[in-house]
Specification:
Number of strands: 0
Order of helices and strands: HHHHH
Radius of gyration: 37 Å
Helix content: over 70%
Distance between the termini: 86 Å
Number of helices: 5
Shape: elongated
Largest sheet: none
Structural class: mainly alpha
């Protein structure tokens, strides 16, 4: 009983057989034109973009969204008067000495 052949061995056997029979195969006069026609029908190959080109496309696609997000957050903070509601921001605006004093006084 023979062990089953692997896929590699089967392909190798088929290619070996075809290579040995290459002299008996008849090729017509039109084979060059047929090959060139098939090559022309394939068309141009599309080059794969490099990493910097892909990154550039991503940045330009996200730029409008980022601008809208910045604009929206700016409007939200301007309308809500966010800084006057919290003393932490007032302490930061007044100086670091008061912030340090407030932190140690709270301990």
């Amino acid at each position: 009983m023979k062990p089953p052949k692997t896929e590699h061995e089967v392909v190798q056997a088929i290619l070996r057989k075809e290579y040995q029979e290459k002299e008996t195969v008849e090729v017509g006069d039109q084979w060059q034109q047929d090959v060139m026609r098939r090559v022309r029908n394939l068309g141009a190959l599309q080059p794969t973009p490099s990493f910097p080109e892909m990154l550039e496309q991503l940045v330009w696609r996200l730029a409008p969204v980022t601008c809208l997000l910045i604009f929206g957050l700016t409007v939200l903070f301007a309308v809500s008067d966010f800084t006057s509601q919290y003393e932490v921001f007032q302490l930061l605006m007044n100086g670091t000495e008061e912030l340090t004093f407030a932190l140690f006084a709270g301990l």
